[in-house]
Give the backbone structure.
Amino acid sequence: MNDFTFAIQDRGLQYVGATRIEGPLVVVERIRDVGYDEMVEILDTNGQPRLGRVLDISETQAVVQVLEGTTGLSNQTLRARFLGESFRLPVSRQMLGRVFDGLGRPADGGPPALSADCRDVNGMPINPYARRYPREFIQTGLSAIDGMNALVRGQKLPIFSGNGLPHDRVSAQIVRQARLLEEQTEFSIVFAAMGVKHDVAGFFIRNFRESGALARTVMFFSLADAPSVERLLTPRVALTLAEHLAFDCGQHVLVLLTDMTNYCESLREVGTARGEIPGRKGYPGYLYSDLASLYERAGRIEGSPGSITQMAILTMPADDISHPVPDLTGYITEGQIVLDRDLFQRGVYPPIAGLPSLSRLMKDGVGQGYTRNDHPTLASQLFAGYAYVKRVRGLADVIGEEELSALDKQYLKFGEIFETRFLNQGEYENRSIATTLDLGWEVLSLLPRAELHRVSDELLQEHYRDQAQIAVSGAGPSTED
Amino acid sequence: MNAAADLARGVVTRISGPTVTATGLTGVQMYEVVQVGELGLVGEVVRLIADRATIQVYEDTTMLKPGAPVRPTGAPLSVWLGPGLLGNIYDGIQRPLPGIQAHSGAWIQRGEKTAALDTARRWTFEPRVRSGESVIAGQAIGQVAETPLVKHRIMVPPGASGTVRSIVAGGDYTLRDRVAVLETPAGPRDLTLLQTWPVRTPRPIRERRRIVEPLITGQRIIDTFFPIGKGGAAAIPGGFGTGKTITQHQLAKWSDAEIIVFIGCGERGNEMTEVLREFPELKDPRSGRPLMERTILIANTSNMPVAAREVSIYTGITLAEYYRDMGLNVAVFADSTSRWAEALRELAARLEEMPAEEGFPATLPTRLAQFYERGGAVTTLAGERGSVSIVGAVSPPGGDFSEPVTQHTRRFIRCFWALDTELANARHYPSIHWLHSYSEYVEDVAAWWEKQSPDWGELRTEALTLLQREERLQQIVKLVGSDVLPDTQRLILFIAEIMKDGFLAQSAFDENDMYCTPERQITLLRMILTLYRRGRDLIQTGVPLARLRELACVPQVMRAKSAIGNNEPDKLAELEKRVSEELDALAKEFSKKGQAP
């Protein structure tokens, strides 16, 4: 047994020694007046402080999760000081333009954020009765998103990607171009990086700087070489600041969280260390609730002009969309943008998969009064047409393209042009919604009029163009396999 | 609850997330409600070992400390039942969300104590019995017009019966006012507009009845192909993005039940907001009144405390049973039962219970059965007919139907609407797959449908057979293409296409299409099958399929669902006539050709 003593310090009691250190967990005994989820400062042999929090507390012992790792801690000599409150972040508008570490401490050499307003980083659930339904269309300038999977203000729309796919470029482009149709209001950006590499963080910083967004961006970095447990707090810290900016300062905030897969892995690590019963693929059974406690911190509320729009980026291990992380994310978020390796390899940028991508709130933010009356129909018909293209391609793989019927060949042509003209665009090409929709009709007009079952006669009359009128240029990359 | 003050106070000894252990609660019972800590967080006793009680707390336990007080209330978790429930939105333990907002703003703080119903509001009570009359449990002693749609009966609570000693005259009363005194064998008993009921106990009934009437939902694929009866139980399983919630919303909007209870269990906050925004504006197709007047919402969104998610299902079903006891047809929509099962799993893990399949507790099937069995068509205590239909959404991980929640749910429901990712990807909604779904209520409700149209059973079977054959033909088409098939088989592909676009797919946003009356469903289906039957005969006589495809009526039939409204039966009849005429003309042309030398 260790020799437990405690010494009175200026701030609360300090306990010396721990009974057990295991993974990120430290068990401290004979404690007094400690609360669940209370913050703890653990001092190592050199007197360096590390932050932790109480995961389980009984009359005699506290289980503390050390956020900055337990490397170098000794169970004989460590000292623990309980801070008397749960993890809080001082929030203020002055934090815009700054860079912080994963726990909200300055990482740019500047002074700590000064504010009397300290918020519990776990936040509180928004009363569903007090929510305002998101309806305002955000133009991202990307046809694949605006035309087919429109984003609205206050939505949470993640990007499901894979290793090596250009999710960073796509999200940087969205951040650069996103704006409302009527106003020129620009988003404040809260960027949280969890377990990403230094060069990825560097890419985003460069991008924010180039587009002049740096002054209205706050960054929280818990990079790949930071202790993994720290990542569990990073998105919470970022969202706490976002809530302040949106609902207290009335700003429109775009929150980028990358990469959620790393976050979930940290959660698994802690769960395993605590000896919890694992669920699918070793992830804890509460992964859904835990992710929801992050994703649900998006939206709009009554009585505040601000909003939080969330884009979480996650890489699907082995491109598997049924992996627990994308699967549970998809169940919580309002749709998903899926990047497709096949399109990417054929040189289509952004490689946004036509069929599995979805925006659930699109129906409420497009059409008459929002974008254009033909928008919903056009999107629906493009989806139907492209779904058929996928079937024809499957057939062509078996019997060869020559054997296809004339109609099916026409569909193949449509599919190819759809991908190279509609989906494909430049990384700095910012298309207006009108351009996107007109382009959509142009592509749709490659199909016989009678095939467009989902379009009413009036809309066909207005938008369908006869073949002769169209000169489809061969712009775009080669589609040869 | 004056007794509560005398009950022993306990002390918190351990906190681990929503699970709290306390000692010193002598005499506390299983599932009794206790108040934990200085804030009085609401919790429920879920385990008792010696003098140690394990408590499941419905609110966040951050900064709760060992040594904090625990106060028992002496009662199990109960809901308030009385006028004012309709049109309201509650959290999982029946705290009204508008009240919480008025009290503490947009965020839900801890330790909120807001009464479920407004005790100051006065309701106009009309007595229906006289003093001296003898009454039984469940019988109405009077009624209150809760909304223009619903007459709320004030009933003798279960377990009480006797003679009415006195009853007030018609007039305005609050929920707490005594409206009648009952002389019972156990002594006099005051009756008010309000009663309570513990949520984990089913409300008693006289007997269960056979299900004979369909719950008309206005959704063609459901009503025509996979109907649910009033008092039935159905499951909607589907991976993310397949449209579970939209389908549930559609059903909650258009079902011909008199009361709708919608339980948002561990789902998105914005979805509840959407219902709140939309339902007051939408009109019931039968009465023309706002749909919100017959709806109760229970919202425990995914970021609200997980223990309250577990109980929200019981809160919802108890409210449903209460309205059923008034002799009404109630439909309960639970979105999603998977999140509820996950709450069970999470809480069981905190209690260190031995896990069964995929970490779910071994009691999962029992709990699911208990929930679905609270539905049914019944004779109430007062001898009237009422029903509770249950539709539960299931969210299988990875869209895999072989996981435990989907599999166990299948055992306790009789109607399975399988949502399909491929259909959803092609934006074919509702994405209910016609070959993977089933309903065991078809036999039960066939008589009702055949009263509308004697050929209903025949049309239904023929259409399903056709879709089945199409699926088989598609396998061949995938290998060799459709060109090599003979016209008779290509006709099947052609008609199936019309059926999918013109009948099975239904838009939730198109004004004419969102709700389809039973009559219109039958006519649309008959029209498509007429094309098939006569088309088959024509092809036999040598008419090429291409000529059938070119008929002017074909696109009109496909778009009839949205081009012709529910109240325009003449236009639909006209189209039906046109279909016959065009087919006649084609037949005539080819019979001439056939006779020509």
About this structure: Confidence is low (pLDDT under 50) at residues 1-11, 471-481 of chain A. Chain A touches chain B through 84 residues (CB under 8 Å). DSSP finds 13 helices and 23 strands in chain A.
